[in-house]
């Protein structure tokens, strides 16, 4: 504290004035709480600390701030002395962003933060050190027990982290761990379960390594979000859990998963599903399911799709279904999807994400629609993966549209009232599919189309003319075009002067 105060005091300006009010410091006469509010408007702790040069009273005001923000150097080097200040009060927020730093440096100030924090901790390390740095490989950041913290968000750039073997996070409601290398004897499941995190509501772990097992026994958790891990075994027993997200969580070997969540409403499952190893028990309240099919030439894709069909039929009561159709460059006939005749009778809203590149998606989409023929709302998102950007046509002999009899089969979508389409490019197979879709949906009331950002306004109007021929006059149609390539905003396309009647 003396260091940072001394640095700034040495730069103190001469504040002498002439005139009748010379020497009168009206700002410093304000109540202490008001001065603290003024300093809270500054961006970082360094800017707040600079006010100590104004007068003797201002020397301690910045140490009373309930929120500390350290944003890159030179702020970062002052963290230990600021947290150790004897005048310091409890803190409602500590926000730290820095480029790569040695684990020992982070470990030096975390215990100080744990003693003072009664609110949120956000620590983001933006980069890792060189791979041959022994300190990166061998040193570990020991996470202290934050007994009064309410939210902890750590993104460590794959620095190693060890979890505390004792102590309770009694007030913690949200824990987020990203790009973490887990080391040490204490397992994450021990920390986040009810005995040590009795109030934890949200748990998120993403893009981390070293986590082979996760055993969560929690009475309080409402949401669990796990993505891009290499788990071999997961066990979740969470009677209050409402939402569960599992995306690319398991290693290549057959993982073992046992999940019990009687109040679960929403499940996002983007993993392989083998009912011999995955037990989803006591999920009777499930209303929303999110999963995916893969259309490719390898045998295991067919096995995956058959297993996902079992997953879908496992939950006959779901009301909302989100399905991704992920096409590979080379595909083979997906007969398993074509032959499945079971339905999900209670689905009323279907959202499909189509990653098809140049492939025709109609055959597979037809079978998903047949699976959910009772829907009232449909959203279609046409999306392009990076590996498709250079592709303009299907490989020779591609079977993406086989068998073609889906175009002549009957399908009744009599309850479908509203359709939203995003990313339409106007390819021939898209137009063919939409024409058939609108024939199946005889009671369609509303259509909203947002064209792909690559479509020009003139091309969009041409497509509008073509699509408008497929509808009844009473159908309400809206067409949108993106304003730029960032796809953040779109404006309504005016067609009145084109004579479409839209």
Automatic annotation (TrEMBL):
InterPro entries: F-box-like_dom_sf (IPR036047), F-box_dom (IPR001810), FBL15-like (IPR055312). SUPFAM superfamilies: F-box domain, L domain-like. Pfam families: F-box. Residues 27-66 form the F-box domain. It comes from the Eukaryota. This is F-box domain-containing protein. It comes from Eragrostis curvula.
């Amino acid at each position: 504290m003396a260091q940072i105060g001394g640095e700034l005091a040495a730069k103190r300006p001469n504040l002498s004035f002439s005139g009748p009010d010379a020497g009168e410091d009206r700002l410093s006469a304000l109540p202490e709480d008001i001065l603290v509010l003024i300093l809270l408007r500054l961006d970082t702790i360094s800017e707040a600390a600079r006010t100590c040069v104004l007068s003797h009273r201002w020397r301690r005001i910045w140490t009373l701030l309930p929120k500390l923000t350290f944003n890159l150097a030179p702020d970062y080097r002052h963290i230990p002395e600021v947290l150790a200040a004897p005048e310091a009060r409890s803190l409602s927020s500590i926000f730290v962003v820095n480029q790569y730093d040695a684990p020992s440096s982070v470990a030096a100030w975390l215990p100080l933060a744990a003693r003072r924090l009664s609110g949120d901790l956000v620590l983001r390390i933006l980069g890792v050190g060189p791979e041959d740095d022994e300190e990166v490989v061998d040193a570990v950041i020991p996470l202290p027990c934050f007994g009064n913290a309410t939210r902890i968000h750590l993104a460590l750039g794959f620095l190693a982290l060890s979890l505390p073997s004792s102590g309770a996070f009694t007030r913690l409601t949200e824990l987020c761990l990203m790009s973490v290398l887990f080391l040490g004897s204490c397992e994450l499941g021990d920390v986040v379960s009810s005995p040590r995190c009795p109030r934890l509501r949200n748990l998120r772990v993403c893009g981390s390594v070293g986590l082979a097992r996760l055993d969560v026994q929690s009475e309080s958790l409402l949401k669990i979000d796990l993505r891009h891990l290499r788990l071999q075994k997961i066990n979740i027993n969470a009677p209050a859990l409402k939402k569960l997200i599992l995306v690319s969580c398991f290693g290549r070997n057959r993982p073992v998963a046992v999940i019990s969540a009687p109040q679960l409403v929403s499940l996002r499952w983007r993993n392989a599903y083998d009912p011999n190893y995955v037990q989803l028990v006591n999920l009777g309240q499930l209303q929303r399911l999110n999963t995916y099919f893969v259309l490719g030439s390898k045998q295991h894709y067919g096995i995956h799709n058959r297993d996902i069909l079992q997953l879908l039929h496992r939950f006959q009561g779901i009301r909302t279904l989100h399905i991704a159709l992920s096409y590979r460059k080379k595909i083979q006939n997906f007969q398993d999807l074509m032959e499945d005749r079971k339905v999900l009778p209670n689905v009323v809203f279907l959202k499909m994400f189509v990653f098809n590149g140049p492939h025709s998606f109609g055959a597979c989409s037809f079978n998903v629609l047949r699976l959910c023929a009772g829907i009232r709302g449909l959203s279609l998102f046409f999306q392009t993966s990076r590996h498709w950007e250079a592709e303009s046509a299907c490989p020779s002999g591609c079977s993406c549209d086989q068998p073609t009899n889906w175009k002549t089969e009957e399908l009744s979508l009599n309850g479908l009232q509203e359709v939203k389409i995003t990313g339409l490019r106007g390819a021939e197979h898209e137009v063919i599919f939409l024409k058939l879709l609108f024939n199946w949906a005889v009671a369609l009331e509303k259509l909203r189309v947002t064209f792909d950002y690559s479509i020009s306004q003139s091309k969009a109007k041409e497509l509008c003319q073509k699509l408008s021929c497929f509808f009844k006059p009473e159908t309400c149609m809206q067409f949108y075009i993106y304003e730029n390539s960032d796809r953040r905003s779109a404006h309504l396309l005016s067609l009145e002067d084109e004579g479409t009647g839209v």
